[in-house]
Amino acid sequence: MAVESTRWGVLYCPKRGLLGKSKQGERIRRALDNRKVAYDFVQSETSDSVERLVRMMVSNGYKTIVIAGGDSALNDAVNCLMMEEKSVREEIALGVIPNGLMNDFARFWGFDEDRLEQTIDWLLLRRTRKVDLGCIRYVNAKGEKCHRYFLNCVNIGMTADIMNLRRQTRRLFGSRTLSFLSSLFVMFFHRMEYKMKLRINNDTIDRKVMTVCIGNATGYGQTPNAVPYNGMLDVSVVYHPEVVQLIEGLWLLMTGRFLNHRSVHPFRTAEVRVDEALHAMVGIDGRLMKTPVGPFRVDVEQEVILFLIPA
């Protein structure tokens, strides 16, 4: 039997590390109870279970699905919703309570991990906006045509490697700062250049590139002007800088001025074609994916997810 239309389905994705199990789930329940929210609360055990649990919520008739997690959990949720018919999807509002290793898409809207009560108050207002999704379309090792949607960004090259390292070290240290610093240290022992051929608008880039970010939103600071509601993707292509310039670039990234760096070449487009990205890792919304086999492209689908936004 379908649930009442006002009841929330809350999917809690706990953080895991050496510092013990997070108590955030209890805090979320307490905040919801204090506000008399009608909800059902389920917890994901692994990243693979997110899509399964979202499908369960959709089939049971929940019209509000709230992900208490980070960018990767949101990515799983939107990919699950995009499997549904448009008529079903348009009746479901997706919300987020930031609780991930990285919460870039939530941060874009002003949701703060340290302000749980404010986040829930905003969600209760049920202010919605249809948002765009980026989509990477590729062929896998079996020769099958595949695609994967993203809310935030696709990274190709060194940044995808760093994001993977950061995720692993965050689980180890439990600290955002320590994981970032340790990832930067390890980064200097990794490959920093990749032979790429990219087609963006009327430009062809055929050379060694350090990293590429294709952003539907802010892209962890690499596409700071991107917004998920204009039908366009922002792209930052970074050539390999000297060591001093690399340090300068990291500083500009952390201070929100990444596009000012001389090695960063920004574009705005509806489609990116990647004809070659030899040995480059590919990350989607902060999670490493298996490298596509051969060429792939990234485009955008406009206004396909109903998202709960702040007041």
Features:
311 residues; alpha+beta; 10-stranded mixed sheet; 6-stranded antiparallel sheet; 9 helices; 16 strands
The N- and C-terminal alpha carbons lie at a distance of 33 Å
Number of DSSP E strands = 16
Share of helix, binned:
25-40%
Largest sheet: 10 strands, mixed
Account of the 3D structure:
It is built from 9 helices and 16 strands. By secondary structure, the chain is α+β, with helices and mostly antiparallel strands. Strands 1, 2, 3, 4, 5, 6, 8, 9, 13 and 16 form a 10-stranded mixed beta sheet that branches. The protein has a 6-stranded antiparallel beta sheet with strand order 12-11-10-7-14-15, covered by helices on one side. Strand 8 and strand 9 form a beta hairpin. The longest helix has 16 residues. The mean pLDDT is 86.
List the topology elements.
Elements: E1 8-12, H1 24-34, E2 39-43, H2 48-59, E3 64-69, H3 71-81, H4 86-89, E4 93-98, H5 104-109, H6 116-124, E5 128-139, E6 145-150, E7 153-157, H7 158-173, H8 176-187, E8 194-200, E9 203-209, E10 211-215, E11 233-238, H9 243-254, E12 264-269, E13 271-277, E14 282-284, E15 287-289, E16 296-308
Brief overview:
The chain is α+β, with helices and mostly antiparallel strands and 311 residues long. It has helices at 24-34, 48-59, 71-81, 86-89, 104-109, 116-124, 158-173, 176-187, 243-254, and strands at residues 8-12, 39-43, 64-69, 93-98, 128-139, 145-150, 153-157, 194-200, 203-209, 211-215, 233-238, 264-269, 271-277, 282-284, 287-289, 296-308.
